[in-house]
Design brief:
Elements lengths: L1 E4 L4 H8 L5 E4 L8 H8 L12 E2 L18 E5 L6 H4 L1 H5 L3 E5 L11 H11 L4 E4 L8 H19 L2
Parallel strand pairs: 1-2, 1-3, 4-5, 5-6
């Protein structure tokens, strides 16, 4: 796991406590990660022992969309409490993603979030995007998200096999 934050190690520490190798990148004010930063972080990981490296970019919806991290796939997590209007406000972020995880769907009953409107807005920006509804609290949708990741790993491996 590569964690990006302006100035903290909180996320990487949480990941390491779960037994997952993690590198924290502190950008010192930059609002994004880029491929040169990722390259430095990759040098700190034992890549031979990994099937997947997740890059958590800086947590905003503006800058990360504009910078290439070198990732093979782009995923985005939109939480229900953030609102269904985010695709209208940050269209570039939604247009570059391969998959959108709509998280915290357990809040749908108490949030002012129109799932149909959100999905229509996203698909209008990015017709090829895969959308997965998830609740990390209840576990709903986590298996589908995991299957998507496994499929993408398998596809990548077969495309790079000698």
């Amino acid at each position: 796991m590569i964690e990006g934050d302006i100035d903290s190690v909180v996320d990487a520490e949480k990941v390491v406590k779960e037994g997952i190798p993690a590198v924290q990148l502190k950008t010192g004010g930059f609002c994004h990660l880029d491929a040169s930063m990722i390259k430095l972080a990759l040098n700190e990981l034992n890549l031979a022992g990994l099937d997947l490296v997740i890059i958590e970019n800086i947590g905003n919806l503006v800058c990360p969309a504009e910078f290439d991290t070198g990732a093979h796939k782009q995923a985005m997590i939109l939480s229900v409490p953030e609102g269904d209007d985010k695709p209208l406000k940050y269209p570039m972020m939604f247009s570059i993603c391969d998959v959108l995880v709509i998280n915290k769907i357990d809040y749908l009953g108490i949030a002012d979030f129109d799932m149909n409107a959100a999905k229509e807005r996203v698909v209008k920006l990015n017709p090829k995007i895969k959308i997965i509804d998830v609740s990390c609290k209840t576990g709903q949708g986590v298996e589908e998200w995991t299957r998507w990741l496994e499929k993408e790993i398998k596809t990548y491996r077969s495309s790079t096999a000698p």
